[in-house]
Amino acid sequence: MGRKGISALFFPSSKTLNSSPSFPSTHISSSPSHTFSESIMEENVENAESIITKWDPDSSSNTKFSYLFQQDRREATDFLKSVKDLHRAMHFLVSENSTSDKLVLAQKLMQMAIKRLEKEFYQILSANRDQLHPESVSGGSKSSNPDDGEDAKLEKAGQSITEVERSSALAMADLKAIAECMIGSGYGNECVKIYKLIRKSIVDEGLHLLRIKRLRSSQVHKMNWEVLEQMIKNWLNVVKIAVKTLFAGEKVLCNHVFPVSKTIRESCFAEITREGALNLFMFPELVSKYKKSPERIFRFMELHGALSKLWPETESIFDFESTSRIKLQALTSLRKLSHSVCIILSDFQSSIQKDSSRTLVTGGGIHPLTESSMSYLSSLAEYSETLSDIVAECPFPGNSSPFPESYTIDRSKPAASVHLAWLILVLLCKLDRKAGLYKDVALAYLFLTNNLQFIVEKVRTSPLKELLGEEWVCRHTKKVKLYALSYELQAWNKVLTSLPGESSSAMSPEELKDCFRRFNATFEEAYQKQTTWIVPNRKLRDELKVSIARKLVPMYKEFYEAHLGDLVGEKNLEVLVRIGPDDLGNYLSDLFHGTPFSSSFSSSSSFNS
Asked: Residue 22: its pLDDT value, please?
């Protein structure tokens, strides 16, 4: 260390980090008390000389290669006390007797002592990289008071469970003691420079091990999604460690080592963590700028959710003015991710509305748009908390209140509930238009029945149920039944009206034969068509068959049993009356499986029997 002028040495410039209280410069006149005070101070210089010269790092003795705080902790304490006494003596002498020979000696001793303390400070930081790893610091020392004395720290260390914790506490106590001594002696800059150098390398190494690095937007833009997705997964796995362990631990250590100065604590922590923290929190923003597609929304929401959950810790850890840029970056990433999610949701809605496929689903089954959309929406519902936070800021496209007046929605529910209900309504409107492509009205209603049933079942058996609620499920279940009823009326009304009802008692044999012929023809037509139609949901399929049978079988059975005897003796009666009441159930069981008509309407088994 180069020599300094006496004034510069004793009174560091304003740029020097020194938070210790200055000693009062009391003027002492020429008096016996003045002589006594000066003698005391000169004695302090002489006492300091023996221990400081013993540990002179430039001497040729063995102490040149030894470390004071490793050799003798009691002597280390005495060394620090001697430096403080020396500084006090220098402060007195420069005020009262600036030409004293003892002052020149004190200057040399102070330079020697500071050089030793720099060496000790550097060695403790370097040798205890593992013990002072933020994980051990944040876990083992977070609750300790930064103002506790060294003895309290040593006592706490002796009660620690593991050797790592004991070593960590000892090292932290030594660093604190050296830092206080150097800062109090006017050498805060030298102390802080060493601290920043070592601790930043440790934090940077920790982030490197977590595979956090600086990326440019152009680099991310050129990546394959598979590569970027792996980086996202890694980030999600390590961000909690980086914030709660690495950065939190570093702040704990800064607070402990530099309790005497908020300015120094802030300066050290900001310079050590700023670059790494910005790289960490900038990554989600870079991802948010990547090309949008529906399936990527889930990774965006995972990034948003992780950042949101860590925001309280982030805000608390980086609470200095000098680290406000880090918090701003985290908030920027949250905002950019939200914007990207809103864009993807808007694009998803548009993709439903703009679906121009006119290909009819065979047999009125589930439309691919229904399957893909509901699969997507049920997956979105798994991120309900994050989704609600995001879509609360997403305006509905083109209208602040998109729901029709007849459509009730509980707006007290989370924002995700309202938005997903809206997207399902958009899907239902599109399906209604696709149903209009069917030329057969009955098949159109069956298509709507199938697709709405699929939607309701998907809601009922997924996280959508909790978001949309039981009332939504009940309301749309009723609508399924209304669609099913409309299907039955359109598909079977012609068959049902072919039977005469109560007025059949006065019918002539020819009229009876015409009734049987009409029934045979209309039933066979309905049967042939509807065996090719499909109802994928087994429960719905059975319910439809039962409902049709309850309407059709009793009417036909009553007519059959009342008038079959009136036609006995008629030529080709087995052709005229081909279907018996018991056969209807068998025929109806063939419906809705999507298999072409193959049954033969030969003479009924019941008639032949």
From this structure: 37
Place of tokens 């680099």: 219
The tokens of 460 are what? 């009922």
Judge whether 130 lies within some domain.
yes
Task: Show Cβ contacts of residue 178 under 8 Å, excluding neighbours closer than 6 positions.
Answer: 80, 117, 120, 121, 124, 191
Note the pLDDT of residue 251: 94
Which of 478, 507, 539 is the last residue before a domain boundary?
478
Are 341 and 395 in a shared domain? no
> What is the reported pLDDT for 512?
86
Query: Angle 324-353/262-288 helices, nearest 10 degrees?
Result: 20
DSSP string, 213-227: ----HHHHHHS-HHH
Where a domain ends, among 478, 512, 538? 478
Whether the Cβ atoms of residue 325 and residue 274 lie closer than 8 Å to each other: yes
Residues 6+ apart with CB under 8 A from 64: 56, 57, 58
Q: What is the pLDDT of residue 58?
A: 80
Cα→Cα distances 63→55, 107, 127, 595, Å = 6, 21, 18, 97
Structural domain containing residue 531: 497-608
For residue 348, give the nearest of 394, 302, 295, 387 by alpha carbon.
295
DSSP secondary structure string, 355-392? ----PPPGGG---HHHHHHHHHHHHHHTTHHHHHHHHT
Quick one: pLDDT at residue 330?
Answer: 98
Q: How many CB atoms neighbour CB 525 within 10 A?
A: 12
Would you say 565 and 488 are in contact if contact means Cβ atoms under 8 Å apart? Answer: no
Question: Measured in Å, how far apart are the chain's first and last C-alpha atoms?
Answer: 121
Q: To which residue do tokens 């990207």 refer?
A: 340
Q: What is the DSSP letter of 181?
A: H
Calpha distance 182→83 (Å, rounded): 9
Ranges of the chain whose pLDDT falls below 70: 1-39, 42, 44, 60-65, 96-101, 133-166, 396-411, 502-506, 569-570, 597-609
**Are 24 and 135 found together in one domain?**
yes
Q: Which residues contact 416 (CB under 8 A, 6 or more apart)?
A: 380, 381, 384, 385, 387, 388, 391, 467
Cβ–Cβ < 8 Å for 557, 581: yes
User: Do 71 and 108 share a structural domain?
Assistant: yes
Residue among 282, 473, 316, 466 nearest 385 (CA): 466
- Contact predicate 407/489, CB 8 Å: no
* Residue 367 in domain: no
Enumerate the H helices of 65-100 as residue ranges. 68-71, 73-96
User: Residue 144 carries which DSSP code?
Assistant: S
